[in-house]
Amino acid sequence: MAYELFRDFWWLMFPMSFMALGALRAWLNYRARREVISTLRDLAAKGQEPSAALLAQLSR
Fold first, then answer.
1. Would you say residue 11 lies in a domain?
2. Which UniProt key words apply to this protein (predicted)?
3. Cα distances (Å, whole numbers) of residue 17 to 11, 20, 26, 29
């Protein structure tokens, strides 16, 4: 049963892996953006100006 199911639908591995990789990439981008915003909040609380490189990361 399982072999026949795999034999008939083996090609579904490719779209499912692309969807999983896309979800992982979106989550990693979300984490990076959240960390940049957290750093900007900390700098604002201290009254410091953020660097241009930090602001450039936010606009990517």
1. no
2. Membrane, Transmembrane, Transmembrane helix
3. 11, 5, 14, 18
